[in-house]
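Need tokens for this chain, all 448 residues.
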Amino acid sequence: MDILILYYYIDYSKKVQFLINLWACEYFNICCIHSFPQYEYFNAVLINEVDEMGNNVELGGEFLLEPNDHFNNLSVNLSLSVVQVPTNMYNKDPDIVNGVYWSEALNKVFVDNFERDPTLIWQYFGSAKGFFRQYPGVKWHPDEHGVIGFDCRNRKWYIQAATSPKDVVILVDVSGSMKGLRLTIARQTVSSILDTLGDDDFFNVIAYNQEIHYVEPCLNGTLVRADRTNKDHFREHLDKLFAKGIGLLGEALAEAFTILNDFNQTGRGSVCSQAIMLVTDGATEMYDDVFEKYNWPERKVRIFPYLIGRESAFADNLKWMACANKGYFSQISTLADVQENVMRYLHVMSRPKVIDHEHDTVWTEAYVDSALNEKAGPSLMTTVAMPVFSTKNETNQGILLGVVGTDIPLQELMKLIPKHMLGIHGYAFAITNNGYILTHPDLRPLVT
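Here are the structure tokens for all 448 residues:
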């Protein structure tokens, strides 16, 4: 059984690798084009929508959709893909349109894949810029508030494929200067950072002023796995933070470095990348003595400062910290700026994989496919995904373009089980590296 499952994994991994290789030839021939004022694409929300005059809306247009048995009678288009852009992003932003333009070469790859292997279902590309190209084309419907909260960069398949496993300590400034809106933005920033962590990652959150406060006191001096339960637990504690006193950043940094070092020595963490996320409204000094003691010259821990507020009086110190410790500096002025600024650190964390040409295939644990759920009942799926990088000669750092993937029904895995060889009381099952059940005869989806 182990051999059969492994063979199935390798087979699908090759399909994803083929998808990337075939598309890369198209991409590198057209990615230099940046000006196309007349270019439009099929927006998943706007297709087949008309205005008051009965005309097709911009980025909409007529898009043929037909029910298809293979997709549980959902109305799809087997010739074209559609593009979904998060509600909080401008769908004609130049970066979005640019990415959509050169990724249009994926249409042919998607169609060819499906013709070659009719068992495939959803194929997609999640861009580092935020847009999501999905095949076959299907119309997306916003909720009652006109919002679609889906952002491909927050999905587990994207996070696992885009970065290596990492240990992260989040430092939150709760000194008196962080009162009001700044503290609200800081809470949202921490929550967004948690969204970018997956089951292979470990983390803790520390608030500091003149003292160090672990957001969860029971987890003093350690890190925990970034699964959904732990992340939700920490989010609940964020509301209990309040600002007062002065901020002693040096002691907080020393605590964070100590935790990361001690945890790494035990071998219980990711044993890979390490980072400190610093959420603050400023730093009065550079704390080079702390970095010299704990992080130099190896610089194993990256520093990612997030400056909260519009003032830039102490921005230079934070920028220096980021540059001196292989990190990235971001400034967050409003709540609307949070998500895009938080996402930028993923590019930095993915650089080692780019440089080493590591196109690792990742598999997610089982989940319920909501797209098929409406008409066919709960359907358990897994996703196989792989990162896509640009390694053009003009840069020696590499760029994460996004993640490509496809969904696989668990029923397809179960079909490979040689039941006649297991015996009358035998059965097969599979679990992920994190202990989550992937397939099991008694596994039932819990829909809430």
